[in-house]
Amino acid sequence: MKSVKLNLNPKMAIKSTVFFMSTLLMVSCFNEKETSEKAPAEIAVNQEMLAELTAPPHVPTPIGRRKAKKLVVNMEILEQVGTMTDGTTYNYWTFGGSVPGSFIRTRVGDEVEFTLSNHPDNKLPHNIDLHAVTGPGGGAESSFVAPGHEKTFSFKTLNPGLYVYHCATAPVGMHIANGMYGLILVEPEGGLPEVDKEYYIMQGDFYTKGKNGERGLQPFDMQKAVDENADYVVFNGSVGALTGDNAITAKVGETVRLFVGNGGPNLVSSFHVIGEIFDKVYVEGGDLINENIQTTLIPAGGAAIVEFRVDVPGTLVLVDHSIFRAFNKGALGMLKVEGEENKKIYSGEIREGIYLPEGPGIQNMPTTDEIVEADIPAKSFDEQMEFGKQVYMQNCFACHQSEGQGVPNAFPPLAKSDYLNADVDRAISAVVNGLTGEITVNGVKYNSVMTRQMLSPDEVANVLTYVYNSWGNSGKVITREMVQKVKNQK
Ligand SMILES: [Cu+2]
């Protein structure tokens, strides 16, 4: 019974004893049917098995009906440089080489023998606090391990649920901020109900010396972390870990289960999937199931299991609905659903999920004149193309789409655009000053608003060079001087 674990005040304790006794009565009535009614601590294990560990967004095979076992988990800590976003790298500290760390899947009653190895190339000692552990520090005290060493401890899983694990070595916040967190699932007796697709997603906030998008290897910024002023808020450790080719997938009619965690260190997540309603949410990763939910709150150091059936094809966009984090700091992922349209459920005029909360027509024009200079001007055509593509993916992609194809009735195409190719200054002006009013692109009329893009002259030159040299366009090279000239005309 769960009361063993709770730390109750006296009044609660009385209540809980009454509850405990009445449960005992109930149990004694229903007891006959299965061993499953045993207190988790009493569940015997006789076989040993090596735990399957997976990197996100994948999860190990479901437990199903397997009996409780001695489960051997071998987790290796690796400090390694990885990509935060195009052009920006970060020295991640990881459990198993990924952020979040390897997913651990257990069942109630398992005896987990956990070995934590700290790779000899690492610089620091680490440990692990698993929220699924009943015991001091969640294992932290027994697992503190220096580089080139390993530590083993064991624990029995008593409470089903989805739990966070993280490093708890001082300064704890710094170890978590560098990516040292992951999820451990404790399935109930008999396993979770079957679904078609399962994925592992974990949010985290990152603090870098340079601001969002600044190039190069970015060191951790302690002061920003203390101030809770995140430069990046991301799913699965980096910007784009779940978008484009990295998107997770499902087919129309399938049921999807997402194991969603939040490593923090600071921010809570308002987890939402644009264009979908959660049929079920295991609130905070526990037993309580809520139904028909739009957005579920996932605290730092907490988790939730969300489930839904996908009914129509398209791209569902996963966000932290603290929405600037999604569109400006990276907390955005995609679930691509393929299959037959169902016009009854969704009429489907726009195929890809575009999200403009206020609609393109009423978004405010930015008023500030402060435009940040790009740190390094491109030195060659190839560099212009490379930098330009990055600017495109960060600033234009959402509307004009990955291949410049645009979105029918909303955003004009840039691919083979006669409007673009006819007049370079006019195209520069669209980016620098914004564009509004009726225009005709390839014979189709658009009457909407493109807000002025807050980019440096170099960035404008690069992105337009990229656009002009992609998707069958006229191949012009735009220089910062050409951009400057158009700016001065204003
Ligand atoms: Cu650590």
From TrEMBL:
<keyword id="KW-0677">Repeat</keyword>
<feature type="binding site" description="type 1 copper site">
    <location>
        <position position="166"/>
    </location>
    <ligand>
        <name>Cu cation</name>
    </ligand>
</feature>
<dbReference type="GO" id="GO:0020037">
    <property type="term" value="F:heme binding"/>
</dbReference>
<feature type="binding site" description="type 1 copper site">
    <location>
        <position position="321"/>
    </location>
    <ligand>
        <name>Cu cation</name>
    </ligand>
</feature>
<keyword id="KW-0479">Metal-binding</keyword>
<dbReference type="Pfam" id="PF00034">
    <property type="entry name" value="Cytochrom_C"/>
</dbReference>
<keyword id="KW-0349">Heme</keyword>
<comment type="subunit">
    <text>Homotrimer.</text>
</comment>
<feature type="binding site" description="type 1 copper site">
    <location>
        <position position="131"/>
    </location>
    <ligand>
        <name>Cu cation</name>
    </ligand>
</feature>
<feature type="domain" description="Cytochrome c">
    <location>
        <begin position="383"/>
        <end position="471"/>
    </location>
</feature>
<dbReference type="GO" id="GO:0005507">
    <property type="term" value="F:copper ion binding"/>
</dbReference>
<dbReference type="InterPro" id="IPR009056">
    <property type="entry name" value="Cyt_c-like_dom"/>
</dbReference>
<dbReference type="InterPro" id="IPR008972">
    <property type="entry name" value="Cupredoxin"/>
</dbReference>
<keyword id="KW-0408">Iron</keyword>
<dbReference type="InterPro" id="IPR011707">
    <property type="entry name" value="Cu-oxidase-like_N"/>
</dbReference>
<feature type="binding site" description="type 1 copper site">
    <location>
        <position position="126"/>
    </location>
    <ligand>
        <name>Cu cation</name>
    </ligand>
</feature>
<dbReference type="InterPro" id="IPR051459">
    <property type="entry name" value="Cytochrome_c-type_DH"/>
</dbReference>
<dbReference type="Pfam" id="PF07732">
    <property type="entry name" value="Cu-oxidase_3"/>
</dbReference>
<dbReference type="InterPro" id="IPR036909">
    <property type="entry name" value="Cyt_c-like_dom_sf"/>
</dbReference>
<protein>
    <recommendedName>
        <fullName>Copper-containing nitrite reductase</fullName>
        <ecNumber>1.7.2.1</ecNumber>
    </recommendedName>
</protein>
<comment type="similarity">
    <text>Belongs to the multicopper oxidase family.</text>
</comment>
<feature type="binding site" description="type 1 copper site">
    <location>
        <position position="167"/>
    </location>
    <ligand>
        <name>Cu cation</name>
    </ligand>
</feature>
<feature type="binding site" description="type 1 copper site">
    <location>
        <position position="180"/>
    </location>
    <ligand>
        <name>Cu cation</name>
    </ligand>
</feature>
<feature type="binding site" description="type 1 copper site">
    <location>
        <position position="175"/>
    </location>
    <ligand>
        <name>Cu cation</name>
    </ligand>
</feature>
<dbReference type="GO" id="GO:0050421">
    <property type="term" value="F:nitrite reductase (NO-forming) activity"/>
</dbReference>
<keyword id="KW-0560">Oxidoreductase</keyword>
<dbReference type="InterPro" id="IPR001287">
    <property type="entry name" value="NO2-reductase_Cu"/>
</dbReference>
<dbReference type="GO" id="GO:0009055">
    <property type="term" value="F:electron transfer activity"/>
</dbReference>
<keyword id="KW-0186">Copper</keyword>
